[in-house]
Amino acid sequence: FTRISYNSCRNRHCPKCQTVNKERWIEARKADLLNVGYFHVVFTLPDLLNPIACHNPQILYDLLFKAAAETLTELAADKKYLGAQIGFTSILHTWGQNLMHH
């Protein structure tokens, strides 16, 4: 992965300047993964809760993470779905693809 980029802005979100670094990062993360199935699950808050998130982010996001963890754990433990104890990583994203807060 080598690419010369003249007049680089060095912004980590720039597809021109950071594509090579992004690909390197992805390859490095692949080496960290276990040889098991992975699923991407998204929990979204309704827009109606945005004012609460702005004024009480710690409380609201703590509740979101707790509810998401309980939901995933309970569903995975059910023999009807997976019948297993799972592990997961939770990440909070408060912006969209256009990097605007949402």
UniProtKB/TrEMBL annotation:
Residues 2-45 form the Transposase zinc-binding domain. InterPro entries: Zn_Tnp. This is Transposase. It comes from Cohnella fermenti.
